[in-house]
Design brief:
The chain is an alpha+beta fold. The chain contains ten helices and eleven strands.
Amino acid sequence: MLRVVERLGRWPEKSFTSFFTAEGDECKRLISEKQPGFAIISLGLYLELRAEHHLIPLAQPRINGSNTERIRVVVQQGRYKSLEDLKGKSLGGTVLAEPEFVARIVFAGKYDPASFFVLKPSKHAIRALRALDKGELDAVILNGQQFAALGSLNLSHPIETIFTSEEIPLMGVVANDRTGSAADRARFARALEGLCADGEGKKLCQLFGVESFATVDPVVFEPMVELWEGGK
């Protein structure tokens, strides 16, 4: 991806270096140690790290025609009617990798997942859904992309939604406003806007289900910041 962004932004090749991790704690360590100018992180990590590391939203992805999503809790049809029915029951899913995000943003401070449910985090949504189908889990929490893909799964039991969050803006790329210039941030954002229309970049976007990137006004995330700060 970096080589494509460099080309689109007219930077010399290998102007940027990168590091990758799918683990939240490792991501926090790397951001603290490396102080990157740009990062692709989750909304939960942005909210947690924004003040300490001077992070500002730079670009949002568009996925399934939208730059927002809703998080849902699904169950086998007819088993439970509401979240209240799930008290003390098992809840699985990849979204549980960030329990504070679930508590403060998804549930808007109304439920503490760690004490309300028996949490069963998973690295793969499909495994959690198959466990739900077998009756090994009582419920699964899904992000927007995962919920949209439900129709492609061959599950034995019908699934229904018993909780849907408010709209949550998708997080894409953030910038550290202390380690680079405003001009470089604007340049990087313009390169991202052209990424999914580029021949090589389009393949990368399709791999992650991203239709396009657009420069975003940080104000879009202010309601999320307020929810996050209110949950402290």
